[in-house]
Write a structure and sequence with these properties.
This protein is about 75% helix and about 0% strand. The relative contact order is 0.09. The longest helix is centred in the middle third of the chain and has 34 residues, at about 25-60. The chain is an all-alpha fold. α1 packs antiparallel against α2. It has one domain (about 5-70).
């Protein structure tokens, strides 16, 4: 999520609070427009993000090492923990 998208969602949240407080149709319409604009910007940023990743993967000249580096960067290096041992309370 880009800084612009965050700002748009913050504005939409602020306008939503105002619309709830005043209950005027102008404020409700402003909130709807701001929310619609924020969602559109979010979808656009998301598609650009994935297109950028796709282009990086297609133009990767260094082979599998660079490929997996990009994948780990995007998905995160998540390590799953092993199932903990069952502890028995012996006294």
């Amino acid at each position: 999520m880009t800084a612009k998208v965050k700002t748009l969602f913050k504005t939409a949240r602020r306008l939503h609070k105002r619309a709830q407080r005043t209950n005027h149709f102008q404020d409700i319409d402003k909130h709807k427009d701001a929310r619609r604009e924020a969602k559109t910007a979010w979808r656009k940023a998301e598609t650009e993000f994935y297109a950028n990743i796709e282009s990086k993967l297609k133009t990767s000249k260094n082979g599998t090492r660079k490929y997996w580096s990009i994948i780990k960067n995007v998905l995160g290096n998540k390590k799953t923990e092993a199932i903990p041992c069952i502890s028995t309370a012996t006294q």
